[in-house]
Input
Amino acid sequence: MDGHCTCGAVSYRLTRKPLFTHACHCTWCQRETGAAFALNAMIETEAVEVTGAVDEVVTPSASGKGQVMARCPTCRVTLYSHYAGAGRLMAFVRVGTLTRPADCPPDVHIFTATKLPWVLLAPAIPAFAEFYQRSTLWPAESLARRADLLARHGVAG
Output
């Protein structure tokens, strides 16, 4: 999979399939994206090859630990973020920046307690009022990749 910002100054290629894709309906994501929800494909940062320089902007988050957003310095589009959990080891790629975003549908809807009432969710996709247990939804391969990533970097998972 590959993607880019609006102006094309920054592009990227994912060298592996994303681990899991979240449609997050929290009010923070709504505000940050200016949309009903954020659609983020999680992948090991080492599997994201970026061409062009990004500006990193630290923004507040509900956890209080902040979020690092990687944006194009020209058009300011956010391409991916790093959250406090796995930090810079994991990238949350904005699906809308993929060349073919339809290839990366959500695996789960989270924080639906604050979902906008006119957003209708497909019954086949799990939805949670808050968050969920990773071990109950993620494919075994994705869980193993995440565990390997954290172990290689000495991070408790």
